[in-house]
Design a protein that fits this description.
about 240 residues, alpha/beta, Rossmann fold, seven-stranded mixed sheet, globular
Length: about 240
């Protein structure tokens, strides 16, 4: 990545807080360097509470996601599918073709297609399958077809299960910003304590520190390039240093 080149970066996560948990440091690093960052969230998080109604927690989680995006000056794209019920079909594929066209990204970052959660792997699969179609003129959506197919990288899974990073981004310098972004999702602290008996900040720090241990940094985030044609041509589009 040329030092002065300004990129358009589209990060896509299944739930509010997925992006912050997995790649908040990388997104903060892009933003620090003046690149345009878009944070798209597939579902509205409407089941993420033990006490609040679906409508109320969805509203809260939208506000939390908005606050997180604003922390780094990113643009939030709230897609709004029902939490736990996002599927790969023609409608969702067309929707994501249009979302990618809206952002006009140079690079797309999304879930690995073997993550533990159906919303995660379905999001990754739909984005992967929509990538080439974004440049096909005869597939008509609200936004115009892209002039070039964006590069695509998959990011880490929860706890790193079934994911071996191909490359690492050093996020030591943006780790505190990552914590700040994830801390915007206050509703999930109590929820995760109730369901998994853990704090989300501690969980995130352990995983980011472990990826750092693997890569020789204090904190790092792991990625894999899409292996299908057309192959990734420029790994330096990631903000390594």
């Amino acid at each position: 990545m040329h030092e002065n080149a300004k990129l358009r970066v589209l990060a896509i996560g299944a739930h509010p807080d997925d992006l912050e948990f997995q790649i908040g440091g990388t997104l903060a690093k892009y933003a620090e360097r003046g690149h345009q960052v878009f944070m798209a969230v597939t579902t509205n998080g409407e089941v993420g509470s033990s006490t609040l109604s679906r409508e109320e927690i969805a509203r809260i989680r939208y506000e939390e996601a908005k606050s997180s995006a604003e922390t780094i000056g990113a643009e939030l794209i709230w897609v709004g599918y029902n939490d736990e019920f996002f599927f790969d079909n023609e409608e969702s594929r067309r929707r994501f073709i249009d979302i990618i066209r809206l952002a006009e990204p140079d690079v797309v970052l999304t879930h690995w297609v073997e993550d533990y959660h159906p919303d995660h792997f379905n999001t990754g699969k739909v984005v992967r399958d929509a990538r080439i179609m974004t440049a096909v003129p005869n597939i008509v959506t609200e936004h115009v077809p892209l002039k070039k197919i964006p590069q695509l990288f998959f990011y880490d899974t929860v706890a790193g299960i079934n994911f071996v990073p191909e490359v690492y981004v050093n996020v030591t310098g943006t780790f505190e910003t990552k914590k700040k972004m994830l801390s915007c999702h206050k509703s999930q602290d109590a929820w995760l304590r109730d369901i998994y008996d853990m704090t989300y900040i501690e969980f995130m720090e352990v995983q980011t520190r472990f990826r750092g241990l693997q890569s020789g940094f204090k904190y790092a985030e792991g990625f894999r390039a899409l292996e299908t044609y057309p192959r990734i041509s420029n790994y330096n589009i990631l903000p390594f240093e």
